[in-house]
Description:
The chain is an alpha/beta fold. 19% of the residues lie in helices and 35% in strands. It contains one helix and five strands. It has a five-stranded mixed β-sheet with strand order 1-2-3-4-5, with helices on one face. The relative contact order is 0.19.
Amino acid sequence: DLRHFGKVQYFQKGKGREIDFVLDGRIGLEVKTKGISRDYNHLRSAAGKLGLKEWYVISKEFVEAPGFISVVDL
């Protein structure tokens, strides 16, 4: 469904960090059942190295923190 919003890619550096979805080469999206701060920090680091403008952790269980989006909000 993300293809409706632009080009969708996946990123993984070797066997290390990965980003589930990179939308239009500018937005990183990491999908978790329950995102935690560590997930956001890893995503922020990987996104920064790729030069992404925005990054979000999308989680089924809501976490009220900057950079987290609840599936209910989508």
